[in-house]
Amino acid sequence: MSTGTTKLDVVVSDVVPVNELVTRFHFRRRDGGLLPTFSGGAHVVVEMRDGDRTRLNPYSLMGSPLDTREYTISVRRDDVGRGGSLFMHRQVKPGLEMVISYPVNLFSLDLRAKKHLMLAGGIGITPFMAQTSQLAGAGGNFELHYTCRTASLGTYADVLQQRYGNRVRLYHDDREERIDLDKLLSSQPLGTHLYVCGPAGMINWVRDRAAALGWPPETVHFEHFAAPQPGAPFDVTLAVSGKTIRVGEQQSLLEAIEAAGVDPPYLCRGGVCGQCETNVISSDGKFIHNDHWLSEEDHRSGCKIMPCVSRFEGKSLVLER
Amino acid sequence: MAAKTIISRPLYGTLSPQPGKHHLFIVDAEGALAITDMAGKAPPGFFDGAEIVFIPGPEGRHVAALEALKPAQLHIAPSFASLLPRLKQTLTNAHMGLRLYLAGTEGLIGQAMQAALEAGIDHTSIQTEHRGSLARRVQCVHCKGITENVSTQPALCSHCGLLLLVRDHYSRRLAAFQGVCINAEDRSEIPPMEEAFP
Asked: Which part of chain A is CATH 3.10.20.30?
């Protein structure tokens, strides 16, 4: 349990394979009521009870915000990840009772925009499914550019083209189709906001080009949930609670802190929201920062760490927890 | 220099060259000097993509200094009202990559920003620098009339004649400070009028 993450008791109402890598999961409230309202771009944290291990992974809600009878998420199978997506694909069946967090939106539309320009890469399409539904319902002006590896891996490309016609433009890597990004960014009317969700490399590329072409930072929105990376085990002293813990190879620092019975605040568990930011009291070693929250200056200073995605290598680390 | 008193009171910075494809400057009177001071920090060729709209005011100075920067366009306007239709047209046709720079009096900065907000530019995306007079554009909260160039405290509403306390409470939507009747309880009470915004 954590601040801002009230839980919802849900039941899996449907499991739908979408393509060879992606499966969609539908959740309904166990008591049959409506789920909380959300806005396009929101995510929920799904609790996965796998034996004695609990994983907490964030997934964007992809259904229409206008329909809160159910929530839907799409999960891309990652065969070399830490096992969350494999658990979802293998263990989660219709009828299974699960617990998810209330929705939280760290990637919301700026509704003051005259136009919304959306760039999706791969499974980064999911928040745009909800955002386009929200905008289409309100007559909003948007354009979606979606890059996928192949047509068969273009998750929901068919649905989107059917719904929105030429407002959706597809780019297939295997056909050498590439976004002419500079031209696209330079031809947008004043008052356009840019949204990008996809692999880290794509997000960095788009943010860099947008900044160089004169897009003010407040018009550029991005979301990338960094999955916690595995790494060498390390020991950490939690000064406030007086505990010394070991972070396992496949475990995140946040998960290790929670396993020791300490509950830091969190929302996204993906290095984005800033909730679990933790002060470093002392350290002797090297930080491996993987978050998008702290500034480069914070990263260099070694005074702060985001335990949800970042790790440490070295002799000792003392945290204010 | 304006001091932060309440949260709505705008603060201004120092113009600095931004990355972008087009640079639009709207300045009045001493605001021209904010551009010439900034020019030293601008990368080569910066003014090739720049348009400067300048209201020289009664003293009519600084035109030559702006001409010397060789902007792509220099437009001299007699007043803000006279340049507004052109500004709106420019913003309507503009693309992302246009950067806006406002310098001079608060009235000019506020009104140009008002047009920019309507065009979808966030106020935090706009470069501003205050130069010259501290005179305020004030909206009488009672009759809603706007009085330009208010330099006294209290001030007389030029529309309904009420004596107004000029507050730091500012509206970006109206591009005006709020003026509230200072002697509503007893209209015979007339506080001394002082030069507060020279």
From this structure: 234-319
